[in-house]
Design goal:
Elements (H helix, E strand, L loop, with lengths): L19 E12 L2 E12 L3 E5 L6 H8 L7 E6 L2 E2 L4 H10 E4 L11 H11 L5 H14 L15 H13 L5 E5 L7 H16 L3 E5 L3 H7 L2 E6 L2 E6 L1 H6 L4 H10 L1
Parallel strand pairs: 3-8, 3-9, 6-7, 7-8
Antiparallel strand pairs: 1-2, 1-4, 4-5, 9-10
Bound molecules: adenosine-5'-diphosphate (ADP) and magnesium ion.
InterPro entries: AAA+_ATPase, ABC_ATPase_HisP-typ, ABC_transporter-like_ATP-bd, ABC_transporter-like_CS, MetN_ABC_transporter-like, P-loop_NTPase
EC number: 3.6.3.-
Protein name: L-glutamate ABC transporter ATP-binding proteinL-asparagine ABC transporter ATP-binding proteinL-glutamine ABC transporter ATP-binding proteinL-aspartate ABC transporter ATP-binding protein
Length: 260
């Protein structure tokens, strides 16, 4: 079990609302003839912190990427914050502006400074005046505890610092939902904690979060629900205590026995 979560978590703001943030119904996706997501049904309420786990190749990244339309589904329905994901580009832009995404590889622009990475989308997509965008960026860089790196380039930062910049960059667009796809799996162990701490703070502030991660300490401390996927399906889901103590399916048991 991961030891990354050491500090006490403040759960007072981590309440789940009745309002639905994401609704996925009977959703299917194929890559060519390969049926990658099968009849996925999922309701995410505002304020939920969901951890998605499962073996490599089970469709976790594809599912996350469908939610902000980096991938297109072929049947069923995905509704994000009341907006249905269809081929209508207007809808896609609206959804992307509400949903932040952080990847395993930080995907920062190497030729731009940290500050420029954080202000690029607000200035060019949101038409925010430069000075205001910079103020907002500095606010979030302080939040992820690296304001002093603002004028450096990504290559001058550690992996953990770069990932915190990636989180700050997402937050600059004021998303209502944050998607994380294995945000710590490319990091050295000593940097994992600083990124998880940033994610914990976000959770404590009430952000709706979907995190693909194998950091089971994080799942236990922060998630209100853990979803296990295998072969393109949601096999099992439960609150973390029950999920880890009492997994139901053989596939979940096998998976947990391999990672815990
Ligand atoms: P996970 O994130 O759980 O490891 P992925 O969603 O990345 O799984 O991938 C699920 C399956 O889809 C894997 O078998 C993978 O090889 C396949 N796959 C992923 N992306 C593509 C793609 N662009 N084209 C074809 N197959 C893909
Ligand atoms: Mg993946």
């Amino acid at each position: 079990m991961s030891e990354a979560i050491e500090r006490a978590i403040d759960r007072s703001h981590m309440q789940v609302s009745d309002e639905v943030a994401i609704q996925i119904s009977q959703m299917n996706k194929w890559y060519g003839s390969f049926h990658v997501l099968r009849d996925v049904n999922m309701t995410v309420h505002k304020g939920e912190r969901i951890v998605i786990c499962g073996p490599s190749g089970s469709g976790k990244s594809t599912l996350i990427r469908c939610i902000n339309r980096l991938e297109e589904h072929q049947s069923g329905q995905i509704v994000v914050d009341g907006i249905e994901l269809t081929s209508d580009l207007k809808n896609i832009d609206k959804v992307r502006s509400e949903v932040g995404m952080v990847f395993q590889h930080f995907n920062l622009f190497p030729h731009l400074t940290i500050l420029e990475n954080c202000t690029l989308a607000p200035i060019w997509v949101r038409k925010t005046p430069k000075k205001e965008a910079e103020e907002v960026a500095m606010h979030y860089l302080k939040k992820v505890k690296i304001p002093e790196q603002a004028h450096k380039y990504p290559g001058q930062l550690s992996g953990g610092q770069q990932q915190r910049v990636a989180i700050a960059r997402s937050l600059c667009m004021k998303p209502r939902i944050m998607l994380f796809d294995e945000p710590t799996s490319a990091l050295d162990p000593e940097m994992i904690k600083e990124v998880l701490d940033t994610m914990i703070e976000l959770a404590e502030e009430g952000m709706t979060m979907l995190c693909v991660t194998h950091e089971m300490g994080f799942a236990q401390a922060v998630a209100n629900r853990v979803i296990f996927m295998d072969q393109g399906q949601i096999v099992e889901q439960n609150e973390p205590g029950e999920f880890f103590r009492n997994p139901k399916s053989e596939r979940t048991k096998l998976f947990l026995s391999q990672i815990l």
